Amino acid sequence: MDLVARARRGDGEAFRRLTEPHRRELLVHCYRMLGSLQDAEDALQDTLLAAWQGLDGFEERASLRTWLYRIATNRCLNARRSASRRPAVEWNVPDVEPPEPSRLGEVVWLEPCPDALLGPDARYERSESISLAFVTALQVLPPRQVAVLVLRDVLGFHADELAAMLETTVESVTSALKRARAGLQRKLRAAPEPPPAPGSPAEDAVVARFVHAWESADVDDLVSLLTEDVFLSMPPMPFEYEGRAVAARFCASIFTAGRRFDLVPTRANGQPAFGAYLRAPNGVSHGTGLYVLTLTGDRICAMTRFENGVLPRFGLPRSLPSR
């Protein structure tokens, strides 16, 4: 008896063996659509429960993978439509008076995705399809456009497969895809140069300079690494800063308050990232957040700061012992 037949007869282990090869890619799919790893994990659990309960309805005309993507996509569309997103929080950095933000961001529920969840090939793939900029841009497009764009342009499903998944016509899929591509192009900021390859000497050089500047609180050295239109954001706080001058004032406000940090490297969304640990008088450094860098050539064109609740997802401790 094959695994599908056994699972239909209530064999949970058979169902696990059927679905396990697809769990990681389904989680990443849900993350792209929802922008939050926590929400993506919830959507994946809903998907697997729906698949378990609805296995009798799997007619095997399409592959199991396609059937699971159909369920996952519809669960994500329902989540997008529910609008129950986590709200923005107020500025919460003690003793720091930030400059006036350039604007207030919309996608305050954004969370980083550890590269470890992206699979063993993530380091060798171009990072556009999982980058923070791409995932953020998806969040402000209409839900069905997001579904069509991700399923077609990222995952490579054909238009007729998308039409079946979304219970619509090929013409409707084609129209939605055209609008989604145009909307995405408007939202993404064009980088003057591609980022260096992950783990390359060029990337390592930029990262090393950033670590030295940040840990030594050297604003001038830090600013020399930034592009003219550098972009700083810090979800779930909505403050956003655009431009080297205001970014310099923001970083100076952090260091002038006497805050000094130790950085622990990791990777998020195919990009260099760091756990940030605030040094205390007793020598212990306490985790305050996660920084994710977006590179263009040998410069930093964006930095996103997340709160310290994400550190455990990256295998990072809450604090570092005294040196």
Offer a few descriptive terms:
single chain, DNA binding, RNA_pol_sigma_r2, 323 residues, Butyryl-CoA Dehydrogenase, subunit A, domain 3, eight-stranded mixed beta sheet, globular, 8 strands, Nuclear Transport Factor 2, Chain: A, NTF2-like_dom_sf, transcription, alpha+beta
Describe this protein's structure.
The N and C termini lie far apart (60 Å). The chain is 45% helix and 18% strand. It is globular and about 65 Å long. It folds into 2 domains: 163 residues, Butyryl-CoA Dehydrogenase, subunit A, domain 3 (Up-down Bundle), CATH 1.20.140; 120 residues, Nuclear Transport Factor 2, Chain: A (Roll). Strands 1, 2, 3, 4, 5, 6, 7 and 8 form an 8-stranded mixed sheet that branches. With 323 residues, it is an alpha+beta fold. A hairpin with a 2-residue loop joins strand 2 and strand 3. It has 11 helices and 8 strands.
The helix/strand order is: HHHHEHHHHHHEEHEEEEE
How many H/I helical runs?
Answer: 11
Distance between the ends: 60 Å
Structural class: alpha+beta
Content of β-strand: 15-25%
Q: Helix content range of the residues, please?
A: 40-55%
Oligomer category: single chain
CATH topology of the largest domain: Butyryl-CoA Dehydrogenase, subunit A, domain 3
Provide the low-confidence segments as ranges: 121-125
The CATH top-level class label of the largest domain: Mainly Alpha
Summarize this structure briefly:
The chain has helices spanning 3-8, 12-34, 37-53, 64-82, 132-139, 143-154, 159-166, 170-187, 201-215, 219-223, 244-256; strands at 103-104, 226-234, 237-242, 261-268, 271-279, 285-296, 299-307, 319-320.
